[in-house]
Amino acid sequence: MHVNPRWGAPIAELLGVTKTYYKPDGSVLVEAVGRNGRGVDLSVPRGQYLAIMGASGSGKSTLMNMLGCLDRPSTGSYLLDGEDVSVMADELLSSYRGRKIGFVFQAFNLIPELTVVENVEVPLLYQSVSRSERRARAVETLNLVGLADRMGHRPRELSGGQQQRTAIARALVTNPVVLMADEPTGNLDSHTGEAILTVIEDLHNRGMTIIMVTHDDRISRRCERIFRLKDGAVEHDRFVHVRT
Fold first, then answer.
1. Is the residue at 199 inside a domain?
2. Is residue 244 part of a domain?
3. Residue 185 carries which DSSP code?
4. Are 102 and 174 in contact (CB under 8 A)?
5. What's the pLDDT tens digit per position in 7-31?
6. With CB atoms 3.0 to 4.6 Å apart as the test, which of 60, 91, 158, 216 could cross-link to 54 if both were Cys?
7. 0.70 exceeded by the pTM?
């Protein structure tokens, strides 16, 4: 395995993970992740930029859902920032996920009635952060993604790229240990998508751990590592280039 001096200890570690869906009669419907009882192992060190790839039905979205603590593995364990989240109680897991993971999706999922800065503050409402600190942290992250001049606007007043930048700021406002992006440029034209990828790369250069699901080889080549699934199993795990 390649080692980069910028990388730290594993921030996300899947150990023998499988995900199986069953029919009502108890028979197997599909082995979404893992094959024939053999689970998937994946260790993502702090500071790495990882692409998860695979064709439709390969298991990449299921794997991402488990990494994002949105779904639990059927077998195996998952350590996120040193804690075994696969055995956490639901309420504790929800709180832990909110503090440790920032999500960016293809759909921006902004609240139309709120301003840009209010949208970015939303995750902090669930963490009982004071109003003044919420605003300060939202302003800081909006500056980071280049939206200092759009804080009072509503989502409908923004371009697609500006809406996705707002979504990225919202993902960062909790100071997560990892940013998870699921096809973040899927709803954008190529020029705007390129700008969003530059924002994500800048975040990585600042030390952020990034896990991105993508079907686009051009995007994956910008990452440091490609983890490709096929029929729920690892097809290959390779390093594209290692930035120092």
1. yes
2. no
3. T
4. yes
5. 889 999 999 999 998 889 888 888 8
6. 60
7. yes
